[in-house]
Amino acid sequence: MTMSAATAIPTGFDPQQACRELDQADALGRMRWGLEQFGEGFALTTSFGIQSAVSLHLVSQLPATVPVIWVDTGYLPPETYQYAQTLMDLLGIDVRVAQAEMSPARMEALHGQLWSTGEVGDLELYHRIRKVEPLDRALADLRVSCWASGVRGRQTDHRKGMQPLEQVRGRWALRPLLDWTSKDVFYYMQQHQLPQHPLFDKGYSTVGDWHSSGPDDGSSSGRATRFGGLKQECGIHLPGVGGEGI
User: What are 144-159's pLDDT values in tens digits?
Assistant: First the structure.
């Protein structure tokens, strides 16, 4: 298809009608919708985490290349960097790396190890520096007006109330997998022979930075294992920067 160079909201766009249409579509149909509506203003974000292969595979099935924005905090586990390379080689996706302007060493020299203090405010500053600001800068540089992600409604309390399409920090956020379960993810990966993240076999059901992720331990699972139990959200999917709440 020929994509429009414009990234503005399409003429006559009705978000409520869009949500009704998206509710009736499958995940690939939702991805197609994003591309058809926003053209070159459409992108996908990824963490190359445990379940990222699904949305990356879906976007690779679209009739035009969609940029994939990878927010690399500089603190990802070695296994995630290896997994990212595996999926890039397998799927042939167009990955754009988004990183903080401040290096990890400089951040630690100025602010310390923000993730280790046990203070929510320090963790929010860390997420703003290393995740939210790099993503928003990449979205602006690519003139993105709608970005898709792999969030699912059952992952956190905040995500339970999400709609398939909402505004987040001045752009539209599309959630093709919002109604999927963990079983849906597992079976999709089996059906399409997608490789699992290396940490999946070590008991991780979610993984982000090496210092703030852990395997399910019987008392906590999913995103409750993240960020030392202080938070479930890093801020990327929240309307504003720094609030409670990938």
Answer: 999 999 988 876 666 6
Mean pLDDT, the chain, as a whole number? 85
The model's pTM: 0.84
Q: Residue ranges per domain, the chain?
A: 15-229
Query: 């879906």: which residue's tokens?
Result: 58
- 15-229 has which CATH code? 3.40.50.620
User: Using an 8 Å Cβ cutoff, are 49 and 206 in contact?
Assistant: yes
Q: Which two tokens stand for residue 106?
A: 């400089």
Q: Which of 234, 235, 237, 245 is catalytic?
A: 234
Say if CB 234 and CB 147 are below 8 A apart.
no
Q: What's the angle, vertex CA 133, arms to CA 132 and CA 136, rounded to 5?
A: 85
Q: Is 146 a catalytic residue?
A: no
CA 98 to chain CA centroid, Å, is: 12
Name the token pair of 4. 């429009």
